[in-house]
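U., I forgot to send this yesterday:
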Amino acid sequence: MIGSALPAFAEPVKFAVTDMEGLEALQQEFGAFQTALEEATGLDVELFPVSSRT
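Result:
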C-alpha cells in the first residue's frame, strides 16, 4: 500500500492577511475559502490578521 503524501500529524496551514483589521472581518471575508481549503486538503487552516507587513 502506498503511504499518504501528507504527514499524519501535519501542522495547520496558517494564512495571514495584512490589509484587514480584526479576526471577525477576516473570517467574514475568507471563511468560505478556509472551509473549502480544509475540505480539499484535509488539513486544518488557521486565519489570522496582521496589523502590518513589518
